[in-house]
Amino acid sequence: MKNKIRKLDKLLKYNKSFVEGKKYEKYETSKDPDKKIVILSCMDTRLTDLLPKSMNLKNGDAKIIKNAGATIMHPFGSIMRSIIVAIYEFEVDEVLIVGHYGCGMCNLNTEDLLNKILQRGIPAETVTTLSNAGINILKFLHGFESVEESIQDSVSLVKNHPLVPKEIIVHGLVMCPETGKIDVVVDGYK
Ligand SMILES: [Zn+2]
Predict the structure, then answer these.
(1) Domain-wise residue ranges, the chain
(2) Cα 66 to Cα 79: distance, rounded to the nearest angstrom
(3) In Å, how far are 40, 49, 62, 69 from 45, measured between CA atoms?
(4) DSSP string for 109-139
(5) Ligand 1 centroid vs 102 CA: distance in angstroms?
(6) Which of 17, 81, 114, 142 has the fewest CB atoms below 10 angstroms from its CB?
(7) What pLDDT score was predicted for residue 5?
C-alpha cells in the first residue's frame, strides 16, 4: 500500500466540506421517484452523469439500478427484486432498461478474464471446486453478443415476470455513451 493514494481519505475530506458548506441543499428531495420510473442501466462511467442529464432527470426523479451491462442475470436475483420493490413500494409504473453502445460486457472475453483471476492469485483449485459445485465461471462472467438482443431479453423477462403486474410498461433503450442519444429498441406503449 506504500505510495498508494488512499482514496477514501481524500473522499472523506471532501465530504466534510460538502456537508459543512451545505452543498446538499440543491439535491433535497423525497425517496419517492417523482417521475414514477425505474431505470436499469450499465455501470459504465461515461453514463454516470450523461444518462440522467440526457434524460432530463434530476435528483429524486427516478429509481436507478446499475450493474455491468444492464443485464438481469436471474428472474429472482437482486435486480428483479429491486424492480419489484420499486413497483409496489414506490408506485413506479414504467420500467426502462437502458443499455449502451460500446459496452464492456458485449463480447467480453471470459477466458481472458478467468486468466486474470488466476494471475491475481486465485488458486485454480478454487475454480475446480466451484465447477464441481455446479458454478460455471465462464457462464457466470459471460456478457452478451448484441446489446439490442440483451435489452430485448431483459424487457421480456420483466414484462413476463410472474410478480410484475400486467399494466407495467417496459421499454428497451440503447444509449450512445458519447452523445447520450437514445435509440428505442422496445417501445413499451406498443
Ligand atoms: Zn456497459
Answers:
(1) 7-108+143-186
(2) 8
(3) 15, 8, 19, 12
(4) -HHHHHHHHHHTT--HHHHHHHHHTT--HHH
(5) 7
(6) 17
(7) 77
CA dist 64 and 84 (Å) reads: 13
- Gap from CA of 107 to ligand 1 centroid (Å): 11
61 Cα to the center of ligand 1, angstroms: 22
Q: Which residues of the chain have pLDDT under 70?
A: 1-3
Residues 6+ apart with CB under 8 A from 22: none
Residue type, 51: L
**108 in Cβ contact with 143 (< 8 Å):** yes
Question: Could you tell me the distance, in angstroms and rounded to a whole number, from the CA of residue 69 to the centre of ligand 1?
Answer: 4
Q: What is the Å distance from ligand 1's center to 5 Cα?
A: 27
Cα 147 to averaged position of ligand 1 atoms, centre (Å): 9
Question: So what's the pLDDT on residue 160?
Answer: 97
Query: From ligand 1's centre to the CA of 49, what distance in Å?
Result: 14
Distance 140 CA to ligand 1 centre (A): 17
Instruction: Tell me the pLDDT tens digit for each residue of 40-82.
Output: 999 999 999 999 999 999 999 999 999 999 999 999 999 999 9
- Report how far ligand 1's centroid is from the alpha carbon of 154 (Å): 14
